[in-house]
Design a protein that fits this description.
The protein contains 11 helices and 14 strands. By secondary structure, it is of the alpha/beta class. Strand 2, helix 3 and strand 3 form a beta-alpha-beta unit. Helix 5 packs across helix 6. The chain is elongated. It comes from Carlito syrichta (Philippine tarsier). Part of the heterodimeric TRMT11-TRM112 methyltransferase complex; this complex forms an active tRNA methyltransferase, where TRMT112 acts as an activator of the catalytic subunit TRMT11. GO terms for molecular function: tRNA (guanine(10)-N2)-methyltransferase activity; tRNA binding. Its main location: cytoplasm.
Length: about 425
C-alpha cells in the first residue's frame, strides 16, 4: 500500500492484507532513527464509514488476544496537519464501540495501545475539512528519534567545523551493524561523532586523524564567541559526557595513507567520513622532494609536511585498509562526494574483497551530493588484491572524484552570479 508522504516517517510498517505482524529481529525498534512508531494495521479508509467497513473485515480471532476481559487498553488519536478538540477525539473513540473490546480502559499503564491516525495532507495553509486517509491499528513500538536530540551536536562539549550530525551518525552505525563488544575504527576521526554513535550500541571505539590539534583538543574553538578550546574539549570528554567513556580505546595522530597497524583483521566495522576538500582539506604526510632510492627511513630531524591527497587515492587506500583489517563479514561505511551531473554507479570504488551492500544519496546542492556507501568483507585479503583497482576498466572514472572541489565551487560561483544578476534586473 502506498502511504501518503505525511505518514511515511510515522508508519514504518502496516500489516496489509491481514498479515500477522512480526518485528524483524535484525532491525529492532531500538535501533531505528527515522521512524517514529510501528503499528499493526487493522483498518484503513478514505472516510470514517470506509474505515469502519474495513475494520469489520479484519479477522476477529486476530483481535481477541488484545481485547479479552483480562486486558487493559487505551485508544489514542494522532492527526497530521490538523488539531482536534477533546470533544472531537472522544466522538471518534466512541464510534469504535462496535469493536469487541472486553478489557478495561487504563490511560496510564495499559497493556495494549490502539491508535487512530488521520492524514490531512501537507499544506498548512489549506487544511481540508475531512482527512485524506484514516488508519486504525495496534501500537507495536516507538523508534529512537529522541536520540537525535539527546546526542545533538549543539549540546556536545567538543565540536569541529565538520562534526557529523547525530542522526546521520546513528544511521551509519546501523548500516555498519554495530553491536555490543564490536571494535569500531574511524581513520578520519575528527571530533569523534561516529565513535559516539557506535559506543552507544556497546562497541569499543578507536580512530586516527592527521590533525594533532583536533586529536588533542587544542587550538582555536569552533564555537561562536569562544576563542580557544577548553580542557574538557576532546574526544574522550565527548564520550564521557554521554556515559560512554568505558568504550573508548584511544585515538592516535596518524596518516590514513600510511596506516601503522600490523597486518591482520582487527575491526568489526570501519565507519568514517573522509574529508572532501571543502571545509576540511585532504592531506597526507610526505616530502616535497622525491625520496632518494634505497632510503627507507627519514632522518630523525626530518619533519614531514602536508601534501595534497587526491580523493581517488584516499578512497582506494580506505578500501584496501578495510579489506585488510576488517574481519570476514565486517562492514565499511563511508561517504562518497559526487558531482551529480556526471555521477554513475560505476564511479563507486570497487575492491575484490568487498561487496557493495547499499548506496544511498544525500543531496548537498543542486549539482552535488554525497553517497553513503556500505560494503561488506566477503573474501580474505591477499597481497595481489592491493592493486586490483588498477586493472579495473572503471579506473579512469574513479579519478573524476579528484576534481570534486573545483566542480563544487564552480557551481557555487554560478549560483552567486545568477542571484546577483536577478537582483540587478
Amino acid at each position: 500500500m502506498a502511504l501518503p508522504s505525511s505518514l511515511n516517517r510515522y508508519l514504518l510498517l502496516m500489516a496489509q492484507e491481514h498479515l500477522e505482524f512480526r518485528l524483524p529481529v535484525s532491525s529492532p525498534a531500538h535501533r531505528k532513527l527515522m521512524e517514529r512508531s510501528i503499528f499493526e494495521l487493522w483498518g484503513h479508509g478514505k472516510s470514517p464509514e470506509e474505515l469502519y467497513r474495513s475494520l469489520k473485515k479484519f479477522p476477529v480471532e486476530k483481535m481477541v488476544p488484545f481485547l479479552h476481559a483480562d486486558s487493559t487498553y487505551k485508544i489514542k488519536i494522532h492527526t497530521f496537519n490538523k488539531t482536534l478538540t477533546q470533544e472531537e477525539k472522544v466522538k471518534r473513540i466512541d464510534a469504535l464501540e462496535f469493536l469487541p473490546f472486553e478489557g478495561k480502559v487504563n490511560l496510564k499503564e495499559p497493556q495494549h495501545i490502539f491508535s487512530i491516525l488521520e492524514d490531512y495532507g501537507l499544506d498548512p495553509n489549506c487544511i481540508p475539512e475531512n482527512p485524506h486517509n484514516i488508519y486504525f491499528g495496534r501500537w507495536i513500538a516507538d523508534g529512537q528519534r529522541e536520540l537525535i536530540e539527546s546526542y545533538s551536536v549543539k549540546k556536545r562539549h567538543f565540536i569541529g567545523n565538520t562534526s557529523m550530525d547525530a542522526g546521520l551518525s546513528f544511521i551509519m552505525a546501523n548500516h555498519g551493524k554495530v553491536k555490543e563488544n564490536d571494535i569500531v575504527f574511524d581513520p578520519f576521526v575528527g571530533t569523534g561523532g561516529l565513535l559516539i554513535a557506535s559506543a552507544h550500541f556497546g562497541a569499543y571505539v578507536c580512530g586516527t586523524d592527521i590533525d594533532y590539534n583536533t586529536v588533542h583538543g587544542l587550538g582555536k574553538a569552533s564555537r561562536k564567541n569562544q576563542k580557544w578550546r577548553g580542557p574538557d574539549e576532546n574526544i574522550r570528554a565527548n564520550l564521557r559526557q554521554y556515559g560512554l567513556e568505558k568504550y573508548y580505546l584511544d585515538v592516535l595522530v596518524s596518516d590514513a595513507s600510511k596506516p601503522s597497524w600490523r597486518k591482520g583483521a582487527y575491526f568489526d566495522a570501519i565507519i568514517t567520513d573522509p574529508p572532501y576538500g571543502i571545509r576540511e582539506s585532504t592531506r597526507r604526510t610526505g616530502s616535497q622532494k622525491e625520496m632518494p632510492k634505497g632510503i627507507e627511513k627519514c632522518p630523525e630531524s626530518h619533519v614531514p609536511v602536508s601534501l595534497n591527497y587526491h580523493l581517488s587515492d584516499m578512497f582506494f587506500d580506505l578500501l584496501n585498509f578495510a579489506a585488510e583489517t576488517l574481519v570476514l563479514g565486517g562492514r565499511l561505511v563511508y561517504w562518497l562526494p559526487v558531482y551529480t551531473p556526471e555521477y554513475t554507479e560505476e564511479m563507486v570504488p570497487w575492491h575484490p574483497c568487498l561487496e557493495l551492500i547499499s548506496n544511498c544519496e544525500q543531496k548537498l546542492s543542486s549539482h552535488t551530493s554525497r553517497r553513503l556507501i556500505t560494503m561488506e568483507k566477503v573474501k580474505k585479503f591477499e597481497n595481489q588484491d592491493q592493486y586490483s583497482h588498477l586493472l579495473s576498466d572503471r579506473f579512469l572514472q574513479y579519478q573524476g572524484h579528484n576534481s570534486f572541489r573545483e566542480k563544487y565551487f564552480s557551481g557555487v560561483t554560478k549560483r552567486i552570479a545568477k542571484e546577483e544578476k536577478s537582483t540587478q534586473e
